[in-house]
Amino acid sequence: GQSLEQPSEVTAVEGAIVQINCTYQTSGFYGLSWYQQHDGGAPTFLSYNALDGLEETGRFSSFLSRSDSYGYLLLQELQMKDSASYFCAVRAVGGSQGNLIFGKGTKLSVKP
Amino acid sequence: EAGVTQFPSHSVIEKGQTVTLRCDPISGHDNLYWYRRVMGKEIKFLLHFVKESKQDESGMPNNRFLAERTGGTYSTLKVQPAELEDSGVYFCASSQDRGNTGELFFGEGSRLTVL
Q1: How far apart are CA A80 and CA B35, in angstroms?
Q2: pLDDT digit string (tens) for A23-80?
Q3: Are residues B15 and B79 in contact, defined by beta-carbon separation less than 8 angstroms?
Q4: Residues with Cβ within 8 Å of residue B53, at least 6 apart in sequence
Q5: pLDDT band with cut points at 50, 70 and 90 for residue B100
Q6: pLDDT tens-digit profile of B60-69?
Q7: From CA A55, how far away is CA A62, in angstroms rounded?
Q8: Strands B31-37 and B75-79, how do they pair?
Q9: Residues of B in contact with A95 (CB under 8 A)
């Protein structure tokens, strides 16, 4: 089957850098996505990595190593508003594009 | 531009009753998806529409769930009869392409509580 593992909780202080790791097991791989969800809100797309390496979008970066079945989301210059849950996701093998399998999510708490 | 909108935001029903959830995707998005998150579990895929056709319904849990997208615009997800284990948050998402970039636009969800 397919599965993703990510830490359940991470705590950091404002201004710091935090890395949220995601390891995955899948027989087929199309790319790794990251989503952010504030309590009670809609999951919001952050990034997508199909190839190895680092993708940077402002304060957020995402990294992928296909050989290690591993990726991470890097958040820099943390702000209080970054407190949210972060999910990694891969496309389901045999499923349609958009049929994503999500990790259980990492709850990030940013402290002043 | 309006995002994905879902209605109702919260529904409380008795076991055995029927509930219909509605999703309006972003205008022009042919692809529409339903996901749900049961308490403490992962967000799980239910099905995918391309316009009015079901492209992938591999995640539908059983025949108590019926999704429709007549006319290829808004979609409804009906649960009949509802069971306790159906409680959770039902998310709708849409995309213009077929999710090639992993980018889906999600609504805020409809929270269903079955008592």
Answers
A1: 28
A2: 999 888 889 999 999 998 999 999 999 999 999 989 999 999 999 999 999 999 999 9
A3: no
A4: none
A5: low
A6: 999 999 999 9
A7: 5
A8: unpaired
A9: 45, 56, 58
Instruction: For chain B, give the number of residues.
Output: 115
Task: Tell whether A60 is within 8 A of chain B (Cβ).
Answer: no
Rounded distance between C-alpha atoms, residue B54 and residue B64, angstroms: 17
- Do residue B106 and residue A92 have CB atoms under 8 angstroms apart? no
DSSP state of A38: -
Chain B residues in contact with A105 (beta carbon < 8 A):
42
A44 at interface of B, judged by CB pairs closer than 8 A? yes
Site of tokens 């209080």: A80
Please name the member of A42, A94, A102 whose beta carbon is closest to the beta carbon of B107: A42
**How is residue A76 written in tokens?**
């820099």
Residues 6+ apart with CB under 8 A from B14: B82, B114, B115
**In 3D, which of A42, A23, A20 has the Cα closest to residue A32?**
A23
